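Input record (Table S2, row 206):
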Amino acid sequence: MIHLYSWNTSNGKKISVALEEMGLDYEFHPIDISKDEQFQPHFLKISPNNRIPAIIDTEGPDGKEISVFESGAILIYLAEKTGKFMPNDAHKRVEVLEWLMWQMGGLGPMQGQAHHFRRAAKEQVPYGIKRYTDETNRLYGVLDRRLEGRDFICNDLSIADFACIGWISRWEWVDIDWTKYPNLKAWFDRMMARPAIAKGMDIQAV
Ligand SMILES: N[C@@H](CCC(=O)N[C@@H](CS)C(=O)NCC(=O)O)C(=O)O
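Output record (glutathione complex):
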């Protein structure tokens, strides 16, 4: 059994989407970050950076329990556990890792800062709003070009797609103009039309 400690956010949804697509049984344990539950000692034991998501797999390697934090590490762990959504071919595998790391180091942090400056900051900081909105748009452009002629980011559906979907689904928070990113919009619609992805994205935090 996999225990998912998460919340209804862009990083949290990556893992529920992956678990649904992989067909793994899991139990959802909400960690309400609006109530600072990410600082509870039991959660810090498995996620020392006090961030969701994290998992406990009671049937980890060698049958022993394992916990994993950091969404990218969790996606790789689950792909290796199931043999799904991560190619064995070394060239194709590198591509999936490249796009996964692109999301982890680029799209997530930049769009996250755009969300912060546009929606949460206690003062309006025009420089911050522009800097991170522009950067998010640049990254949407990168992904749009990558998706030209491809159904999924690395041709076949992979953990790179799972990493991006939660962020792209928050496009309204950054005022994205879809006419600039037609390949990305088609990918978003294609992803959301998959029942397992729609279910994983709909994980309820309460
Ligand atoms: N690099 C981390 C980022 C996780 C992250 O930022 N999670 C946010 C929610 S999307 C969180 O837990 N925030 C709580 C806090 O800032 O204390 C990952 O990908 O797992």
